[in-house]
């Protein structure tokens, strides 16, 4: 313990060059100065406090960091914040209603026990949601759903219940 | 009466929070002004460190501190050996930061703390370490030969531990045997690969002197104890919280990972919050792994197939250090006879140091290895004797009336003799036989062969000793304001749904809704006593402790409510959050009962006001609290299991091998499973299916590869193949429920079950599919396309 000594005072910020970025996140306009090398995942999580987007591998394989950029599922760990300039980004925090009521897809995940630790879940949800909301028809066969999920790793569930949840959510949304 | 919660498929309490993205994993917890850690790691499997120059790193803008073994004070020590055992001499453990030598690629050498992780990594690259690389031997079988390079000069032939265990009289039985089957099997190294890597964050509050640590660990109580002793802080001033944790599978219980000590140390030293968020590459090279074992197993049998004796000798790779003792090898050696009667056993292992990431338990902890050995040997014995694979098992499985089956001389991980307590092994086998339609498979297989397709049937049986002690506790309190029930235990959850299954146990005793039972665990300030989450023990050990506590609170509630309602306690029932006089509409809410049992009756809310409308909850004269009486409806009790309770199951699969592209497609996968009474079958199935998915990984995809210099060459998710949804089959599960006779709830553990037999199932199925090629049996997992190619081409 260095009692009485002046605490080390690191420079408050890094010396990385900064760049302005303007985008929409969950419908809200965001303008910020970010380090040129800041990942979109870090920007969302640590600059905007949207920590629902998780980071599982930082090399674009596990899909935990998936968000929706201009309607398309994308890896926020392989995207620089500055690349999101001018885009609409949606994260898991925007999926439930304002009062917290779950989206039918989230409800289906709960019904089917399609999550255990919940770490991969936000990325799974955003990937599936982008498919559910797409104009392209979905292949809801067993194999079709599994192929749709093949950009997201889950280490807990064995996927079977996630497949069931996708089917249940698609049915629920179709009947609305 | 309301429906019993125990045994019901009840949705999980925790789900809405996780589904909305509102979980709080370590890196989600906002810490103002936090500093970030990056480690300098050894690029050599074995080297001597001549010097470490941190000058450039220290002066890099944004760097707060650079630590090496020379400026970490009391932390410059060899970390504790968790589980000592007489089979080890001078067991070697790691230092938080290397001093003098490094022993594997990835070992921590220096720690940089900076304003953000980007800057910390830049500075870590500026730390200049001068190494003299040394010779290494990565191959397990060569490592024990005379003249092989040593990981630790203290340990000749790299032997870390050597143990022989004997049950019965194997020598005599071997002499009487009419046939011997001998196979060599190998299971390769893998890793838990939880989706959240490890993470530690810490704050030292100089005003209160309190150190608060958020650690994605399976064992916060142990971490707290270690921090208090090593950092020399009162235990009461150290709080360790395991918040939401993104999967554990064993990797997140080690005492200690270097960061678990160094991050709190730096937070105190620097007076700022500090966090270390492990990245995926670091998880591969820096966090513990498991699996490599090479067994030579012999079954001594009569011509009828009855196995008289088993001899097994195996090598266990423990990596560069052996911090967890011999746990993995011990569990493997004591599980080696599986579900079979086999009365005479001789089993030996050598734990071997290799200059690689240290080995500690990963889901299964030696059981998948043992299962692979005995099940592959059983298949071979069946082939040798011209028997069917089901028939050889029928002739050797322990009968229902033979329990408890004691294997005297084999000491399990709890230090007690193996005693398989209960089960219906024969019934399980027949259920698999029926469900897989084995009777008709041969014809189907023949028809497919004629059409040029190669179907195979694989199967394997397993047992799992679960619910290890020493103990866990449960604290229960009915809250006087809301009437909700608060439950605490010393465990942590990494996705197992404790908050729901423990709530189900409590719900039945107190008549409250499952969602009104609030579990708080993983926080040393919430509950002070206990061990940790590992070894498929939570439901058994904490579950029964919570059950016992719930019974005490139930009795207190019945007594108080009876007084309030002026009835006999025998006439009171608890349901729908209230105490009722049976057969009447007279009732009082649990909140009101809880309020009335607290002599301080401020009317905070309606239920508190209601409490005053009844007779007193306690009938005694004198002061508000009678002698020996405590306020409220609250209890703490503990459960200490007499020994492990043994779950089991049998899996089977129909798979198809395409010899052209050497691929394997699992057509059907059936699991017959028995973990005693199920608290929540939905959660049990989730555990089993997740385990099977990991087993599929271990059977066909996941292998940590080292080059001959000890570099891990697939330390990423591109090259280390964790199965996606496209690789994992649909699983059909049938349950048996043979209550454990050892604990009040009759439960057995389930956490590790699913992964145990999968490798043997897949190997058995591929063997069966490729019989026309005359290939040798597959005795090595994971089974890769190259291995199949070699088999079908005779190469």
UniProtKB/TrEMBL annotation, chain A:
First and last residue of the signal peptide: none
Top-level EC class as recorded in UniProt: oxidoreductase
InterPro entries on file: 2Fe-2S-bd, 2Fe-2S-bd_dom_sf, 2Fe-2S_ferredoxin-like_sf, 2Fe-2S_ferredoxin-type, 2Fe2S_fd_BS, Beta-grasp_dom_sf, Diverse_Oxidoreductases
Pfam short name (any one): Fer2
Top-level lineage group: Bacteria
EC number: 1.2.7.4
Domain 2Fe-2S ferredoxin-type: 19-95
A GO MF term: anaerobic carbon-monoxide dehydrogenase activity
Coiled coil: none
Protein name: Carbon-monoxide dehydrogenase small subunit
Taxonomic source organism: Aminobacter niigataensis
Automatic annotation (TrEMBL), chain B:
The Aldehyde oxidase/xanthine dehydrogenase a/b hammerhead domain, residue ranges: 20-135
Protein name: CO/xanthine dehydrogenase Mo-binding subunit
Highest taxon listed in the record's lineage: Bacteria
Keyword annotations: Molybdenum, Oxidoreductase
Native organism taxonomy: Bacteria, Pseudomonadati, Pseudomonadota, Alphaproteobacteria, Hyphomicrobiales
Pfam families: Ald_Xan_dh_C, MoCoBD_1, MoCoBD_2
Cross-referenced InterPro entries: Ald_Oxase/Xan_DH_a/b, Ald_Oxase/Xan_DH_a/b_sf, Ald_Oxase/xanthine_DH-like, AldOxase/xan_DH_MoCoBD1, AldOxase/xan_DH_MoCoBD2, AldOxase/xan_DH_Mopterin-bd_sf
UniProt-listed SMART domains: Ald_Xan_dh_C
TM region positions: none
Keyword Flavoprotein appears in the UniProt entry: no
Origin species: Aminobacter niigataensis
């Amino acid at each position: 313990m260095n009692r009485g000594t002046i605490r080390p005072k690191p420079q408050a910020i890094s010396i990385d060059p900064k760049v302005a970025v303007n985008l929409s996140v969950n419908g809200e306009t965001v303008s910020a100065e970010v380090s040129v090398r800041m990942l979109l995942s870090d920007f969302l999580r640590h600059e905007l406090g949207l920590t629902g987007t998780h980071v599982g591998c930082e090399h674009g394989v596990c899909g935990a960091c998936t968000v929706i950029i201009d309607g398309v599922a994308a890896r926020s760990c392989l995207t620089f914040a500055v690349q999101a300039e001018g885009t609409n980004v949606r994260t898991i925090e925007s999926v439930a209603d304002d009062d917290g009521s779950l989206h039918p897809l989230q409800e289906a995940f709960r019904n089917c026990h399609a999550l255990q630790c919940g770490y991969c879940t936000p990325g799974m949800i955003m990937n599936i949601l982008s498919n559910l909301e797409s104009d392209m028809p979905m292949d809801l066969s067993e194999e079709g759903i599994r192929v749709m999920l093949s950009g997201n790793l889950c280490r807990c569930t064995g996927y079977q219940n996630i497949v069931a949840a996708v089917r249940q959510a698609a049915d629920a949304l179709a009947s609305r | 009466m309301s429906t019993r919660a125990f045994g019901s498929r009840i949705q999980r309490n925790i789900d809405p929070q996780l589904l909305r993205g509102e979980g709080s994993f370590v890196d989600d917890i906002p810490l103002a002004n936090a500093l970030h850690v990056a480690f300098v790691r050894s690029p050599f499997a074995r080297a001597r460190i001549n010097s470490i120059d941190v000058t450039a790193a220290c002066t890099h803008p944004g760097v707060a501190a650079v630590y090496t073994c020379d400026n970490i004070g009391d932390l410059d020590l060899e970390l504790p050996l968790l589980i000592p055992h007489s089979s080890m001499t001078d067991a070697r453990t790691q230092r938080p930061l290397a001093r003098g030598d490094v022993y594997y690629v990835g070992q921590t050498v220096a720690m940089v703390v900076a304003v953000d992780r980007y800057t910390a990594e830049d500075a870590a690259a500026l730390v200049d370490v001068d190494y003299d690389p040394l010779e290494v031997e990565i191959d397990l079988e060569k490592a024990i030969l005379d003249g092989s390079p040593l990981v630790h000069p203290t340990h000749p032939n790299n032997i870390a531990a050597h143990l022989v265990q004997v049950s019965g009289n194997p020598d005599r039985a071997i002499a009487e045997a009419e046939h011997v089957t001998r196979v060599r099997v190998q299971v390769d190294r893998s890793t838990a690969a939880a989706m959240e890597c490890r993470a530690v964050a810490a704050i030292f509050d100089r005003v209160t002197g309190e150190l608060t640590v958020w650690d994605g660990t399976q064992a916060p109580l142990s971490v707290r104890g270690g921090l208090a002793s090593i950092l020399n802080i009162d235990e009461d001033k150290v709080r360790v919280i395991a918040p939401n944790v993104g999967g554990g599978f064993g990797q997140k219980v080690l005492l200690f990972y270097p960061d678990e000590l160094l991050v709190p140390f730096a937070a105190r030293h620097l007076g700022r919050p500090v966090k270390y968020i492990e990245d995926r590459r670091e998880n591969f090279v820096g966090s513990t792994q498991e699996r490599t074992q090479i067994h030579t197993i012999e079954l001594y049998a009569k011509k009828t197939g009855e196995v008289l004796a088993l001899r097994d000798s195996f090598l266990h790779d423990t990596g560069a250090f052996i911090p967890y003792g011999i746990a993995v090898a011990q569990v493997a050696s004591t599980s080696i006879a599986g579900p079979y009667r086999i009365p005479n056993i001789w089993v030996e292992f050598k734990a071997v140091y290799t200059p690689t990431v240290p080995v500690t338990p990963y889901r299964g902890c030696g059981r998948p290895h043992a299962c692979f050995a005995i099940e592959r040997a059983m298949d071979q014995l069946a082939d040798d004797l011209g028997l069917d694979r089901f028939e050889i098992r029928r002739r050797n499985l322990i009968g229902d009336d033979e329990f408890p089956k004691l294997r005297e001389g084999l000491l399990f991980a709890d230090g007690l003799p193996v005693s398989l307590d209960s089960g219906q092994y024969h019934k399980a086998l027949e259920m698999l036989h029926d469900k897989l339609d084995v009777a008709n498979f041969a014809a189907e297989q023949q028809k497919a062969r004629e059409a040029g397709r190669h179907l195979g049937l694989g199967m394997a049986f397993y047992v799992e000793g679960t619910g290890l002690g020493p103990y866990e506790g449960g604290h229960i309190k009915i809250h006087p304001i809301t009437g909700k029930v608060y439950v605490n235990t010393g465990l942590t959850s990494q996705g197992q749904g404790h908050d729901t299954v423990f709530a189900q146990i409590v719900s039945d005793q107190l008549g409250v809704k499952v969602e009104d039972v609030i579990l708080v665990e993983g926080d040393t300030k919430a509950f002070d006593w206990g061990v940790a989450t590992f070894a498929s023990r939570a439901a058994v050990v904490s579950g029964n402790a919570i059950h016992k506590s719930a019974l005490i609170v139930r009795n207190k509630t019945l007594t108080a409510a009876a007084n309030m309602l002026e009835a006999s306690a025998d006439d009171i029932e608890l349901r729908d959050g209230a105490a009722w006089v049976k057969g009447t509409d007279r009732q009082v809410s649990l909140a009101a009962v809880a309020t009335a049992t607290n002599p301080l009756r401020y009317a905070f809310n309606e239920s508190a006001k209601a409490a005053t409308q009844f007779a007193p909850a306690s009938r005694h004269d004198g002061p508000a609290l009678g002698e020996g009486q405590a306020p409220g409806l609250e209890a703490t009790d503990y459960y200490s299991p007499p020994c492990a309770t043994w779950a089991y199951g049998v899996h089977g699969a129909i798979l198809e091998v395409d010899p052209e592209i050497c691929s394997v497609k699992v057509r059907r996968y059936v699991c017959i499973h028995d973990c005693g009474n199920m608290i929540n079958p939905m959660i049990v199935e989730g555990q089993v299916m997740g385990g099977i998915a990991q087993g599929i990984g271990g059977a066909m995809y996941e292998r940590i590869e080292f080059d001959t210099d000890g570099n891990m060459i697939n330390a990423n998710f591109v090259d280390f193949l964790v199965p996606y949804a496209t690789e994992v089959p649909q699983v059909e599960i049938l349950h048996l429920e043979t209550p454990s006779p050892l604990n009040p709830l009759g439960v057995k553990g389930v956490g590790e079950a699913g992964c145990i037999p999968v490798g043997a199932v897949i190997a058995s199925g591929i063997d069966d599919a490729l019989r026309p090629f005359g290939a040798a049996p597959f005795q090595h997992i994971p089974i890769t396309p190259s291995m199949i190619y070699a088999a079908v081409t005779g190469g």
